[in-house]
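Q: Here's a chain of 507 amino acids. Please give me its 3D structure as tokens.
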Amino acid sequence: MEKTCGLDVHKDSVFACILDEQGKKIFEKRYGVLTPDLDELRDKLVEQGCGKVAMESTSIYWMPIWRVLESDFSQTLVNPYFIRQLPGRKSDMKDAAWIAECLQKNLLKSSFVAGEELQQMRQYSRQHRRLTKSRVRLEQQLDNQLQRCNIRFSNYVSNQGQNVSMRKIIYDIISGVRDSTKLSDKVHGRTLNKHGKQVITDSLSGVIGNADVEMLRQCMEQIELIEKQQATCLTHLEELADKHFANEISLLCTIPGIQKLSALFILAEIGGDMSAFQKATHLIGWAGLRPRNDETAEKVKNRKILHGNKYLRQILVEVSWAVSRSNKTFLGRKHNILKKRMKSQKALIAITRKLLVIIYNVLKTKQAFDPSRNLPSNETVQQSVNCAKSQCAQIANPKKSDTDSICQENLGKENIQVPCTENHIVGRTKKKLHSDSTLKQNVSTVKTVRVQKAGNGTKGSDCPKSKKEGDIAKGSDCPKSKKEGDIAKSAEKKKVGRPKKLQADKA
């Protein structure tokens, strides 16, 4: 073993504890978080000959410490959830010593830490998403301000914030135009034809004050500033991506639903090197798309997905929504099948997981994705349909035909996937025919029993007039001489035991 150091990171302090080769404390001290304090910490670790350093991923406070120590030490970033201390035995210095001890005994699992290029791309992509949220909030505020002035034009258009006609109307209102007829001239002709020019004109006549105009002007200035900042972030993001991940972007764009902007955001979170994740399941768990294991006494209490990289999960869910709307891809067809037996949100998460597996394999193998690889060919689909139809015909008519033999030969040569609709048809036909044949058999059995009873004219006769009340046997079918419980028992005997007895007597 070698010397290790554990760091307990806080917002304004860092607690360091160094253990020697035997696991004994040789140094512990509290440091500040300013750059001179961190330089002093680095010099002390070099002086003590410490080679490995571990720290908790506390918010963003670990990042400057990681940057200062990155060039001189082998660092490990650990999720605090996995190295919790026992309650009642916890202090900052004890936490640092516990981290150092776990590191020395190889009990820590390192988190994925992106390189310098990825960290820069993450800052641009995440800032773009934050600016999008701010822009949407301002667009809602802009619409509320128009509704306050009784300008109801947003009721007749979609995407109020990005609608060109609405932008032109707002600029005219800010410049001083109040005539609703002049404002309606800025509206697109398709909107006028759909709702009528008079309705649109009436929706643009309102009561507008000076304060309302000032609020509209400020909202539009903020929206324009945010759009300019978003364009700047995208420009820098594209420059970094084209410089380091040009090939990966072209590979990701071959996957259904992913275009260049989505590919940029995905690469900013996971990068192009998949060696950090041993399997696709590790990447799925890191993204938070794996259901958790919460089971007690063989009862599953919770199957929600894990907490993972929310930025990656958000962009993947958006891509899954887009690909699920098309039935021409494997993912779209799979979504349509899954949402029939579960909620659409759960089906969407399942498609998101499959999409991430595809992304992992594409980036690992460096091969483009073939959208038609999981879709059956037209010939295979036609053979599947013919086989399903012949199976239905064979169930209805047991005689084996030439088409059935051909179907069996085709099924033996290759594994043909029968479409879901045909499977349902075959299953329903089997169930219906089985239930019909069982019903006919039961009815014919009951009729045979009754005919034999009527022919014998014995105690089991169905005629209530040919018997006295004392001579009625237990197996009588007379409804007037039995209670409801006896009727049920006799009917049960007829279906099961009575026909066998009659056959034995006849033999």
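Q: Can you summarize the key feature?
A: The beta strands are 4-9, 14-19, 25-31, 52-56, 74-78, 294-296, 299-302.
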